[in-house]
Amino acid sequence: MDIGMLVDTHCHPTDSSVVNLSKSTASMYAICAMSTHIEDQIKVEELHGVHPDVVRPYYGFHPWWSHIYTFTEGIGKKEHYEALFLNGKKEDIKLQQIDALLDALPSPIHFQILLDDVERRLQRNARAQVGEVGIDKVFRVKGKDGKLTLLQTSIEHQKRVAVEQIKLAKKYNRVVSMHSVSATQGSMDIIRDAAYQKIVLHSCGIGKNGIDYCQRQFPGVHIGFSTAINTRSMKVLEDSIAVTRLDRILSESDLPVETEYANAVESIVEIIARVKNKSRSEIVHYIKSNFDKLF
Ligand SMILES: [Zn+2]
């Protein structure tokens, strides 16, 4: 495969210890570098500065950190975390876990500050996009001992954090890379609430029925697949690829180590080619043209 034709629509190069691109990765057609939390937005911006043509910079806030954001001015720390983690229910074990963790949790940050930051980056750079945003029903906060607690951020809060970011993408007509884990309905709600379809469901795990529904409801939404996440169940992946329209399909690595991007994209292209009964170069062309149309 011609490396200059390969597209990685979702990766995390700034999660690696050395943030740069090797020659071969820099010769790919494009890589979409995600931001996820407060510290990595600047790293993505710097990487894009070094490789402005190949790196599409994505700015945004991932649902795994959404519990540290608030929409309420001046809310107390305890009040904030109890509201998000208890979600109106009185559960003693969760209350104990919140109390035990409270001093280690950061004071809540008003999300408007972060939205303003994303907006400035979108205004400054026409190539900037929005991501990684989304919803995750499985994620739980770790305790001081490193073990998972029962604490999960309310779905309503996660949705709001995602929708506010997608509205910014809509305002500036940018692409959104969206994370969705065990929350097919929630993800569809987000797309509907934001009233925007320039969205890529990345490492899409919503299954063939979910994809089928999504394509009927939101024909503009694109579907990305990676071997890193999606080969956990080959059956689900193959069924998902089979129902995904060729003019909406995308390839991604979803990996931190940049030297693996081209190989990872090649291997998902190979699976797509097999399921779609096309040659690998045909699939590469479809993906590249889907990518070009999206931007
Ligand atoms: Zn990701």
Automatic annotation (TrEMBL):
It holds the Pfam family TatD_DNase. InterPro entries: Metal_Hydrolase (IPR032466), Metallo-hydrolase/TatD-type (IPR053044), TatD-like (IPR001130). Gene3D superfamilies: Metal-dependent hydrolases (3.20.20.140). GO terms for molecular function: hydrolase activity, acting on ester bonds. PANTHER family: CUT9-INTERACTING PROTEIN SCN1. This is Cut9-interacting protein scn1. It comes from Wallemia ichthyophaga (strain EXF-994 / CBS 113033). The lineage of its organism: Eukaryota, Fungi, Dikarya, Basidiomycota, Wallemiomycotina.
